[in-house]
Amino acid sequence: MSNCISVLFRKGKHHGLALLCTLLVTAFAVTGAFAAEPKVRVLATTYPVYLLTRAVAQTSPDVQVDLLIPAQTGCPHDYALTPKDMQKLSKANVVIINGLGMESFLEKPLAAAGKKIAVIDSSKGINAIVEEHDEDHDADHGKADAAHKDDHNPAAAAKGHDHAHEHGHDHGHDHGGLNPHAFSSPLQAAVMARNIGRGLAAAAPVAAKNCPQVADAYAARLEALGQRLAAVGANAANKNVVALHDGMAYLVRDAGLNLVDVIQEDEEAQPSAARLLDLVKKIKESKPVVLIGEPQYSDKPVLALAAETGVPAVQLDPLASGPSGAPLDYYETVMSKNIAMLEKYFGK
């Protein structure tokens, strides 16, 4: 610095002022670069948790929210962490999980991290659907509810819960007996958002101090969607639906509808011809209003059953996957479209 000052005097007033300005600009640029470095790195495990967390942290510039797995992955039932995923985990201060047994693939990494990473289970307080075993493949997913109000350690939350019952159908994955797709209902997503807001403020009191208030406002909007959803079944004479996948179970239940059955029992395989024939019989007997497909899976089984039975096929998005650069209101927008589709067939 003394050399710079001497240069100022040697070069003259104008030269010196120019050099001084350059030094100041450089100093501010360096300071700005350090300020741009996020103080809290938050890692959301799944796409829907990522959407909710971004919305909750939108007014907290010192909270950086990233997604662990690719946005198009969908539900990571059999997911294996990649080296890139492990690198993300190593840099995270906070990990927000879906819970309900969704993240069994994270059990060991989170246990190894110990207290180095704060883990927020977004599913606390969710009215979870228990998938009960039924040998006749006639499990009523809409009625098997259980309060999920445990305080558990991060590894247990990622793995599942010991008290859970057997799975109703063999979907090619194990959640420990609980349906983990609570995010498909705006009412349950509101619970998740509040958990995320409170959890972030506890983990980062300064950087995330605004998160609980933002979460409450966001959750209120989701609850308004939930009230609109609940009106669908309240006004319907026939409440029966058949869905492609159990990812729609929470949406169906919170709409006041009855999920007669799911078409695709195994996520990794299309239903067999025998299974489709059984479903045709069941659909003709139960007379569901619609057959529900999802953009995350092939719609061929749904369309085939619709053609055979005459029951209309619709597509609803549970938001298990989606665009990585989605706007902050993406969850609300998609859920509103889902509800509008149900209103069309069940009446307001």
Automatic annotation (TrEMBL):
An example Gene Ontology molecular-function term: metal ion binding
Family: Belongs to the bacterial solute-binding protein 9 family.
Classification via Gene3D superfamilies: Nitrogenase molybdenum iron protein domain
Bias-annotated ranges (Basic and acidic residues): 136-176
One GO term of the biological process aspect: metal ion transport
Domain of life: Bacteria
Organism per entry: uncultured Desulfovibrio sp
InterPro entries from the UniProt entry: Bact_metal-bind_prot9, ZnuA-like
Alphabetical UniProt keywords: Signal, Transport
SUPFAM superfamilies: Helical backbone' metal receptor (SSF53807)
Record's protein name: Periplasmic solute binding protein
First and last residue of the signal peptide: 1-35
Region spans: Disordered: 135-183
Keyword Signal: yes
